[in-house]
Design a protein that fits this description.
Helices cover 58% and strands 10% of the residues. The protein is built from four helices and two strands, in the order H-H-H-E-E-H.
């Protein structure tokens, strides 16, 4: 993991940039950013998604974000263009704060690529 202070600074930069671009300055939370990443990874542009599709978009984002850590690997796109991933390794048992920290680090890494 990156240095806590460095991660905190880079996290705030990502949140500010995305909030300015997508939320009229309101502050986006981790779930909203996961949704945006899912939409980006789906690659079908902006459209109205059903509730179950929104959950699937967040799942896509989590898989994509944790792929560089060795937890998932991309498998294929289905006939509707949705990406599917294979779980390679079970996620470690993390406390909620540790899960959030891992996701923030992965999000910062994603936008740094």
């Amino acid at each position: 993991m990156v240095n806590d202070e460095q991660l905190k600074l880079r996290w705030h930069e990502v949140v500010k940039d995305l909030s300015d671009q997508f939320a009229d300055g309101d502050t986006l939370d981790v779930d909203a950013i996961l949704y945006l990443i899912g939409v980006q990874e789906l690659g079908q542009g902006h459209k109205v998604f059903k509730k179950d599709e929104k959950l699937n978009l967040m799942h896509i984002a989590i898989c994509r974000l944790l792929e560089p850590y060795g937890y998932y690997e991309f498998e294929y796109f289905d006939d509707d263009g949705w990406p599917h991933y294979n779980a390679l390794e079970s996620l470690p048992n993390l406390k909620p704060g540790e899960q959030t920290l891992l996701m923030k680090e992965a999000i910062v890494r994603y936008f740094g690529e």
